[in-house]
Write a structure and sequence with these properties.
Helices cover about 60% and strands about 5% of the residues. By secondary structure, it is mostly helical. A two-stranded antiparallel sheet has the order 1-2. α6 (about 110-145) packs parallel to α12 and α7 (about 165-190) runs antiparallel to α10. The radius of gyration is 31 Å and the shape is elongated. It binds arginine. Arginine binds near residues 23, 83, 109, 317 and 319. The site of arginine has 10 residues, from α6.
Length: about 450
């Protein structure tokens, strides 16, 4: 297939150099965006009197035909072309002849590719947002059903204080909600149209950039043509936000893997999201959770790679920037698959509530509450801390727990203990009394859940 730029050359491009330079193998996924951008450009050119109505109609019909032919399999994207832009233009000229040669008037591939990538990313940002919303919905359902499902809360992966499943999931609700907010933020900032920037310095044709931008539902045109063709900040921001999503998913996966282990048995991952071993018949492994955790690395990799690619590029366009695509596409695909699978896995996971509650009962998760009990009896907190510390040591030596000691035993450590200690250190009391905003106490938890519900009922980007 002919190149777009043969005129100035006498010699042939080295074959390997041609292939090294070509991007069609991966930018063919911008086919629809490329057609959409060309439709807007040509519509604007005709409105400005740069193309005739006939030329415009002919080009638009040609573009629509090519799109349809490729979509229904009647035509293949010719991978011998340098890039997707060359393919569309060549196919158009082949189909409609002379008028097709006028499509690229007042445009460069530099602003064309900047537009295509933005259009593509803009859709991806929306899709990520929708997937996050689905995940939040699953998290919220679990929260609603488990306001009184007790479990140990950890620090240093050591049992710390009792909490509930709703409260634990609530932490992830906050994380993925912020991830959604990042999507909205990125979308707003990136939603400006670079088309009309030309190669780097605009053009002498009287383009109406506002009009082109409005045809593609951008908030407006970009304001500096050099920046327009060389800005990839929006992609970097998106990759950073995707990395953060992966970091959140990875932490959640790590916990699920621990909870699903033979030692914990807090949860059971559904068969649909587990795999077996080729040698050990008893095994049911949390492979999906492990893979999501593992794939976090390649998404971080994409972010680091693009930041590094961009750091030494003088203004304006340089071919280095073609490297923005493969790794971004890979990151986008990876996060889409991870979010989809993770949501499926989470929605089908079973909880072993009795195991969780039993685990919250031992391990002295009620020690802080026992100290607070003594404070209620007039003991200063620091002294109470010391008394309960000695009590815990006593229990450890005897292999028992605070709630299983007799009142006489308790009173050998402090005469402040009375019959009401048993109720004060029961799991139910320990959780129920935690009523500060953001804490697991059921009363306050239900209020937070009601707010989450309202938030999820709103439309996109809220
Ligand atoms: N394939 C190129 C890219 O992805 C398109 C822009 C090419 N522009 C140029 N002047 N060579 O960046």
């Amino acid at each position: 297939m002919a190149q777009l730029w043969g005129g100035r050359f006498t010699g042939e491009t080295d074959r390997m150099a041609y292939e090294f330079n070509a991007s069609i193998g991966f930018d063919k996924r911008l086919f629809h965006q490329d057609i959409q951008g060309s439709i807007a450009h040509v519509t604007m050119l005709a409105r400005q009197g740069i193309l005739t109505e006939e030329e415009k109609d002919s080009i638009l019909r040609g573009l629509a035909d090519i799109r349809e032919a490729v979509d229904n399999g009647g035509m293949e994207i010719d991978e011998s072309c340098e890039d997707i832009h060359s393919f569309v233009e060549a196919a158009l000229i082949q189909r409609i002849g002379e008028a097709g040669k006028k499509m690229h008037t007042g445009r460069s591939r530099n602003d064309q590719v900047a537009l295509d990538m933005r259009l593509y990313t803009r859709e991806q940002v929306k899709e990520t947002d929708a997937l996050l919303k689905e995940l939040l919905q699953v998290i919220l359902t679990v929260m609603e059903e488990n306001v009184e499902t007790y479990m140990p809360g950890f620090t240093h992966l050591q049992k710390a204080q009792p909490t509930t499943l709703a409260h634990h999931y609530g932490a992830y609700f906050e994380m993925f909600k912020r991830d959604r907010q990042r999507m909205e933020d990125i979308y707003r900032r990136m939603n400006y149209c670079p088309l009309g920037a030309g190669a780097l310095a605009g053009t002498t044709y009287p383009l109406d950039r506002e009009y082109t931008a409005s045809l593609m539902e951008f908030a407006g045109p970009t304001l500096n043509s050099m920046d327009s063709v060389s800005d990839r900040d929006y992609l970097i921001e998106y990759l950073a936000a995707l990395s953060t999503i992966m970091m959140h998913l990875s932490r959640f996966c790590e916990e699920i893997i621990i909870w699903n282990s033979n030692e914990y048995q807090f949860v059971e991952i559904d068969d649909a999201y587990s795999t077996g071993s080729s040698i050990m018949p008893q095994k049911k492994n949390p492979d999906i959770a492990e893979l999501v955790r593992g794939k976090t690395g390649r998404v971080y990799g994409a972010l680091t790679a693009l930041l590094t690619t961009m750091k030494g590029i003088p203004l304006a366009y340089n071919k280095d920037m073609q490297e923005d695509k493969e790794l971004s596409f890979d990151a986008m695909d990876t996060v889409r698959d991870c979010l989809t699978l993770f949501t499926g896995m989470l929605g089908t996971m079973k909880f072993r509530k009795e195991r969780m509650a039993a685990s919250a009962m031992n391990g002295f998760t009620n020690a802080t509450d026992a100290a607070d009990y003594l404070v209620g009896k007039g003991v200063p907190f620091r002294d109470a801390h010391g008394i309960i510390g000695r009590l815990v040591l006593y229990c450890v030596e005897k292999g028992t727990s605070i709630d299983r000691l007799s009142l006489e035993e308790l009173q050998t450590i402090s005469d402040k203990f009375e019959e009401d200690i048993y109720d004060a250190v029961s799991l139910k009391t320990c959780v129920e009394k935690r009523l500060t905003l953001g804490a697991p106490g059921p009363e306050v938890m239900r209020k937070v859940i009601a707010e989450h519900k309202k938030y999820l009922m709103d439309a996109e980007f809220k």
